[in-house]
Amino acid sequence: MANKLGLIIRREYLAKVRNRSFIVMTILSPLLIVGMILLIAYLAKINDNETRVISILNESQFFNQEFKPSKSLTFVQLDNLTLEQAKDSTNALEYYGLLHIPEGDTVEEVARATYLFTKDNPNSSVTQKLESIFQRQLRQDRLKKLGVSSDQFSSVEAPFEINLATFDGERSIKGINEIKAFIGGGFGYAIMMFIIIYGGFVMRSVIEEKTSRIIEVIISSVKPFQLMLGKIIGNSLAGLTQFTIWIISASVLLSLVVMILGIDLSALSGDTNMPAGPMGGMSQLAPMDSDMMMYTKEILDIPWGILVISFFIYFVLGYLIYSSIYAAIGAAVDNETDTQQFIFPIIMPLMLAIYVGFFSVFSNPHGPIAVGFSLFPLTSPIVMLMRLPGGIGEGGVPLWQFLLSIFLLIVTFLGIVTLAAKIYRVGILMYGKKPTYKELVKWLRY
Amino acid sequence: MDHILVAKNVSKTYGNYTALSNISLEIPKNCIYGLLGPNGAGKTSFIRIINQITHQDAGEIFFNGERLSPKHISQIGYLPEERGLYKSMKVGEQALYLAQLKGLSKHDAKEKLKFWFERLNIGDWWNKKIQELSKGMAQKIQFIVTVLHEPKLLIFDEPFSGFDPINANIIKDEILKLKEQGTSIIFSTHRMESVEELCEYIALIHKSEKILDGKLADIKNAYKDNIFDVGLQVEENGEALMKSLADKFNILSSNLDRQDRQLDFKVQLPSSHTGDILRELSTMGNLYRFDETIPSANDIFIQTVNNKENGK
């Protein structure tokens, strides 16, 4: 019997691995991924390199020292020109815009009458930069009226960041929770993609056996359950093979590309990996070396071993549960177009897990919602992985939650595979009719 | 007599639908057994139970004297009505896989496949994919895969549907050879005339029930009505002859061809004793036809169903 299961696994594996589209996908995907990364790096570089020039026509006695050039914005002072002349020369020199600061008695008055002339609507980062310069000047001016000197003002203006530490005294840094959740989210997202892709493989393989009418020949030799199990295992092995090839070839390609083109990867990780939202503030933090060290240390401190092992545990268990359902769906229908109504309810918990993960685990990895969804077996493979970068045990996921979620996954798998096998057993011999949910329930009792 | 398969009071229901009710059958060894009945009568349900694809709700089945169990799967060969092959798999590889699933070792399977491929002249198909073959070609391979592991019992569901006449004959001959070698064979079909001449035993299944079974010759004997089909070459005056015959015998229908002087008629005798009428007829002219009308399985089926329904 075990021998037959082995035969089925072997056939399913080979059928999948030899499939032309599978081979193409396996080879092309790393190229695509590397290509995407290169494209993003290239775009980021272009973005970085563009420096805008603003010409300034300053007719007031204020704002003489304030416009300091930065990486993205430099300034050119225009003197002794009329506004029209200044506009013309700005256009002729193809500068980004002209800032006209008119004459006036007070900073307040001058600022109110200032205009920025540009060809098109100005970029918001440019206006923000200019506005902050004016705001600072205005604030200083108002405080001066209240009797605060510019030296005093400078000392007041000194930037401040709150110091962070964990209870056991280690200094912690801002944003690290988000980074951790983001890494966990990456793993969770990968699990969702794998479940949907390889579950789909299982489903199509079942449908193929039905439409080619070989199914009855086979189940006169082996039990339907064996066939289903062999299919699920064979396809997951094919998936893991593909996954392994991807990781190896992508890392080889990437390091080759990096060596050849000499692209600075740290520039990449600074700009492109940070999503908008909670991370947005990150890039404005002063890139102090000590902080960078802290981040590197924290990221290295993430329990990668636990994370990778858990990834495989949760992938395998989650995949087993979902692909059993996929197999049952494949058995219930005659062709792929009929699967839509059944697939939606499967994908829903997966999507829910991703959304709950990103919205609730990011902000509070150990809150009640995060805990609940990381225990519920249909979402736990994804949500638990998002929590795991914090480690297991103190400061991370309590060990009992980790073990309970795995236990629940195993129990759920046994339950679902039994139900799926019942539907599968009946469904594979039914032709020509698209079943309703009611009929599926009836099949469970045959 | 020795039986390859004995079913006792086998029943099977799917929800509210009764597929088999109380079926008892005895299938003798080394014969061809016809499981006949219209579509939906329960034939395939019964066969699936023998193949242990599904299980009966009640009743017992014995294979070769032992209670049917998974170990018997390797002794049964089954060609289902819905039969197919993996389209994108190579012929040889696929046949090897299916043979191994039936419990053959890889080495044995290869050897036997070689033998059968040579025998049916398809040796050069080994590396072709199924999608490159015609339907008839694929059916040859399905047949080989069914018989390859030399099962004691072969089951063919709708065996000749979809076969072209040439392939059907090739397969028919191979089945007869297998029977000579001692294999027991079950044909299940709703096209009774297609297997009637091959079957020694039949069972008629109708609406989940067995309505009749036994040796085909016995059944036919039991169902024949002593009706004879007679053709007589007469000298003259056929009408008078006909009249005198009608006085003595129960003439069902008659037809006189004056030009060719041929008198054709059907007559029903009180018993299967034919001496009296033959003596009588031989004095009247030249007898050129005297056939007993034997009912076909189809006729018997319809008659049995009618009797049953009228009896209710």
Structural class of chain B, by secondary structure, is alpha/beta
Strand content of chain B: 25-35%
pLDDT < 50 runs, ≥5 residues of chain B: none
Helix and strand content put the structural class of chain A at mainly alpha
Overview in brief:
The complex is a heterodimer of chains A (446) and B (312). Chain A is mostly helical.
What do these coordinates show?
The complex is a heterodimer of chains A (446) and B (312). Chain A is mainly alpha-helical and 446 residues long. Helix content of chain A is 66%, strand content 6%. Chain A folds into two domains: 294 residues, no CATH class; 98 residues, Periplasmic binding protein-like II (D-Maltodextrin-Binding Protein, domain 2). Chain A has a four-stranded mixed sheet with strand order 2-1-3-4. In chain A, strands 5-6 form a two-stranded antiparallel sheet. In chain A, a hairpin with a 5-residue loop joins strand 5 and strand 6. In chain A, helix 13 runs parallel beside helix 15 and helix 14 packs across helix 15. About 5% of the residues of chain A have low confidence. Chain B has 312 residues and is of the alpha/beta class. Chain B has two domains: 219 residues, P-loop containing nucleotide triphosphate hydrolases (Rossmann fold), CATH 3.40.50.300; 68 residues, Alpha-Beta Plaits (2-Layer Sandwich), CATH 3.30.70. A six-stranded mixed sheet of chain B has the order 6-7-8-3-9-10, with helices on both faces. In chain B, strands 2-1-4-5 form a four-stranded antiparallel sheet, covered by helices on one side. Chains A and B meet through helix 1 and helix 8 of A and strand 6 and helix 2 of B. Chain A: It is a multi-pass membrane protein. Chain A: One of its GO terms (molecular function) is ABC-type transporter activity. Chain A: Keywords: Cell membrane, Membrane, Transmembrane, Transmembrane helix.
